[in-house]
Amino acid sequence: MNPQAQRTPDLEALLINAEACDDAVQQPPAPVTRPWLLLLGLILVALNLRPALSSLAPLLSQVSDSLGLSAARAGLLTTLPVLCLGLFAPLAPILARRFGAERVVLGVLLMLAGGITLRSAFGEVGLFSGSLLAGASIGIIGVLLPGIVKRDFARQAGAMTGVYTMALCLGAALAAGATVPLSHYFADDWALGLGFWMLPALIAAVFWLPQARHKHTAHQVASRVKGLLRDPLAWQVTLYMGLQSSLSYIVFGWMPSILIDRGLSATDAGLVLSGSIVVQLLSALSAPWLATRGKDQRLAIVVVMLMTLGGLFGCLYAPMDGLWGWAVLLGLGQGGTFSLALTLIVLRSRDAHVAASLSGMAQGFGYTLASMGPLAVGLIHDWSGGWSAVGWSFGVIGVAAIIAGLGAGRALYVGAGRARR
Fold this sequence. Notes:
mainly alpha; single chain; Growth Hormone, Chain: A
């Protein structure tokens, strides 16, 4: 049998049959009586997992001037919520076992709305504490939603994951493009522009309420996979996840400020970021499918990372006449790097239990590592007084991601030094 033809079924089988792998240790969940309502709730929740991160970037210069923030403190502000994605992710399964995943999602959505309100209403203290609360909320929900998709849409897990990813990217794009116009609408008040994104979180909570009332069997982790922290391949997957995420959150946090200093208005800079994020939808869906057609994923990893670096350097150094072309290239590259990072977690795992443990490791350590990128950019800008030197950090992170990706992209399983069959 052609081993190449077996790669896509391997990926689909791991996603589709993940629930079956848990049958020995848990009872089957209650059937979903209104799947359309659950799907709508999932989409609305996913739409709220990036606006708190991408809405601040177009207003960062205005916020910094208003509150007297240095570039280093502004860098810390962009770093804090990303750091929380990694630090608070381990709380998600603990809370889910205690209260149920659906109830936790509802409660954390309300916490997210509170964090967004806090950062827009109470000056510098509220800005930092609200960013921390919002990041913690996103970190917890982000861990729980894939498990709910896997449980309640087991036979459509691949398609539902694609819908979830598209909603996540769409939320980021909407916030990046609409926050500055909203602040202008509210009498040029940046606080109201940021605070607006509390409303979608509350709307999502309303539509999620029926799921919190429905009694589901608690989703239990079947077993703890030992030895991942000593597995080189697991660390390569983790490093690739963290390094590509670092570039993504640098773009979320700093790209509008870079473009504003290069001559764009805040509105236009936000639109460029929004357009780049929208383009990610194309490669986020296509890159994993193309990557599984070959013998491994190393070539795909190199290609999408080079596209990302090309787009970054173009936005930073190239003439502004071609800015939109570079923004499109950046979006295609980053959509591919993110989706490949998620795909590697599945492809490098023998079964759903290993995939869950590897996912926790990659997200926990990876997002913690990713948070250092925006902080480093702020420090470099503060030290150099401009953006030119920032390009070196792009190059170092990108090359490191390629090196980690060349290891993670090999056709091996974590915990075993032999090729996938």
